Amino acid sequence: MESRHSFHDIISRNAEMMRLFGIMEQVAESEATVLLVGESGTGKELFARAIHSLSPRHEGPMVTVNCGALP
C-alpha cells in the first residue's frame, strides 16, 4: 500500500506528485515568476499558495490573476 503524503494542504499518494512537491520547493526558493495553467478545479490556487508560503516573500502579498477573466 502506498503511503499518503501531504504538502501545504495538498494530499497525494502519487509518486509524480511527490516529485512535483520537490520542484515546488525549488521554485519557491528562486526569484522566478510562476504561471500555473490548467482546467478549472485542478488545484492551481492551492499550488500557488503552497509556493508562496515557502518563498522568502511569504510575509508579503500574493497576487493572483484569473487570466480567463481578462478580455
Could you explain the architecture of this structure?
This protein has 71 residues and is mostly helical. It has one domain: P-loop containing nucleotide triphosphate hydrolases (Rossmann fold), CATH 3.40.50. It is 37% helix and 8% strand. It has 2 helices and 2 strands, in the order ββαα. A hairpin with a 2-residue loop joins β1 (5-7) and β2 (10-12). The longest helix is centred in the N-terminal third of the chain and has 15 residues, at 15-29. It starts with a strand and ends in a 17-residue tail after the last helix. The mean pLDDT is 87.
Question: What is this entry, summarized?
Answer:
This protein has 71 residues and is mainly alpha-helical. The chain has one domain (5-69): Rossmann fold.
- Structural class designation: mainly alpha
Could you list the spans in which at least 5 consecutive residues all have pLDDT below 50?
none
The termini sit apart by 47 Å
The SSE order reads EEHH
CATH superfamily label: P-loop containing nucleotide triphosphate hydrolases
Average pLDDT level: 87
CATH architecture: 3-Layer(aba) Sandwich
Strand arrangement in the largest pleated sheet = 1-2
Features:
globular, 71 residues, two-stranded antiparallel ribbon, mainly alpha, Rossmann fold, 2 strands
